[in-house]
Amino acid sequence: MLMTALPDRVSVGGTTLEVLRKGRGQPLLFLHPGHGIDPADEFLEALAGKYRVIAPAHPGFGASQLPAGVTSVDDLAYFYLDFIEQEDLHDAVLVGASFGGWLAAELAIKGTGRFSKLVLLDSVGAKFGDREQREIKEILNTPIDDLPGVLFADPKAGVKKFGDLDFPSMTEAEITRFARNRESFLMFGWAPALFNPKLAARLHRIAIPSLVMWGEDDAVVPPAYGRAFAKAIPGATFAGIPHAGHYGYMEQPQAYASAVLRFLNG
Fold first, then answer.
1. Could you identify which of 151, 170, 203, 247 might form a hypothetical disulfide with 232, taking C-beta atoms 3.0 to 4.6 angstroms apart as the criterion?
2. Are 53 and 9 in contact (CB under 8 A)?
3. What is the spatial distance between Cα 136 and Cα 158, in angstroms, rounded to a whole number?
């Protein structure tokens, strides 16, 4: 997991936001999961071959500032509405992974006029079962060393992504970046843990073609949860990816990218 600064900085309503930009053509807005964003992400590299990828570090993550009063995922969604208008995005593809999928869904229920298609990758954020049923594995308090075995189908693949957290050898900037990502993920994801109780009943408002992709070995939110997510979005397509966990887009980047590009081209 790289702790590298993103190359671009923009000001949104006086708040400085880090933004990764790659590729050309139709815009594709990628909303990252709770660990932050990797400038060398293979999945984004593959998408950038066909699209103009725009991948911000969420407010409070990386070196992006956290505006006063932004304390919930709903607040983040309204912040991104301002960002989207400032960027003058039209006909944009909206892609979100895990925590970023929750944020993408919150954006989409507020209006899809600037988006052409929606892609959710192993998203959290909704509650489909009864109040006594736990649908999302508790990961907010999972020790860092245990994350590879939870987020990836193959823990060895996860270690390659998360095993470089040798804090004594990291720079102060890298440690600060890691700590901010972790702190903000906990703040936005806590109480209730990683879902909005009202989101499921609002997913019917999503009025654009949607793809819900899931790792078949997702141990955080199982494929049955993903199918419920797809069923709640009118006309959505569900696709499972073998040998992929919760961070399947990192574990199987080419498989995820190929499926996303087929959906977008179709």
1. 203
2. no
3. 19
pLDDT in tens, 141-191: 888 888 899 999 998 888 877 656 677 778 888 888 889 999 999 999 998
Give the SS3 label for residue 259. Answer: helix
Measuring CA to CA, how many Å separate 216 from each of 46, 95, 150, 242, 245?
Answer: 21, 19, 13, 5, 7
Estimate the share of the chain in helix, then strand, then coil, as percent rounded to the nearest 5: 40, 20, 45
Give the DSSP per-residue string, 105-163: HHHHHT--TTEEEEEEES--B---S-TT---S---TT--GGGHHHHH-SSHHHHHHHHT
> Please, which pLDDT band fits residue 3 given cuts at 50, 70 and 90?
low
Instruction: Give the list of residues 6+ apart from residue 172 with CB closer than 8 angstroms, or none.
Output: none
